Amino acid sequence: MSGLKQKDALGATVEAIEKEAEELFRSGKMNCAEAVLATLKNHFRPELPDDITDMATGFGGGSGSGCICGALTGATMAMGLIVKNDKKRLKDLTRELHKWFTASYGATCCRVVLSGQKGICASLTGKVAGKATSLLL
Predict the structure, then answer these.
(1) Would you tell me which of 37, 95, 119, 122 could form a disulfide with 56, CB atoms 3.0–4.6 Å apart?
(2) pLDDT mean for each 10 residues of the chain (137 residues)
(3) Is the dihedral of CA 69, 75, 79, 80 positive or negative?
(4) Whether 124 contacts 32, CB under 8 Å
(5) pLDDT of residue 10
């Protein structure tokens, strides 16, 4: 596959994952952390049980207190499931994800992000899942 075709395929994959995570959040069935973790699990580790996303429930809405963004936490947990046995790579990927998030949204704190941009949780959830995917691939 040529470089351009690979780039197009990667873009289509990222876009599909963004859409899936955003739709899970919008459905009201999952919070931001659950939606990102479930989507990434489904695409990278489908053999894992679906109820693994239950571990993300408490992280939605900044752990219920407005602290670190739940979508970011869900992506970090998913990366841990996907990048097994390579702690250095996982640390590097997590650092890159956090740097991107801070550059994109101004902070990793849910309360801070939402104070300046009401109503962005659904799209943010999708964007975080997409960025995690692009980093993993």
Answers:
(1) 37
(2) 68 94 97 98 96 94 87 97 94 97 94 86 97 96
(3) positive
(4) yes
(5) 77
Gyration radius (Cα) of the chain, Å? 14
The pLDDT value given to residue 4: 60
Helical pair 70-82 and 87-105, crossing angle rounded to 10 deg: 160
Quote the CA–CA distance of 37 and 56 in Å, as a whole number.
Answer: 7
Residue among 123, 119, 90, 88 at smallest CA distance from 104: 123
The 3-state secondary structure of 16-73, one letter per residue: HHHHHHHHHHHCCCCCHHHHHHHHHHHHHCCCCCHHHHHHHHHHHHHHHHHCECHHHH
Considering Cα of 110, then 10, then 52, then 97, what sign does the dihedral take? negative
Position 56: which residue type?
A
Position 3 scores a pLDDT of 64
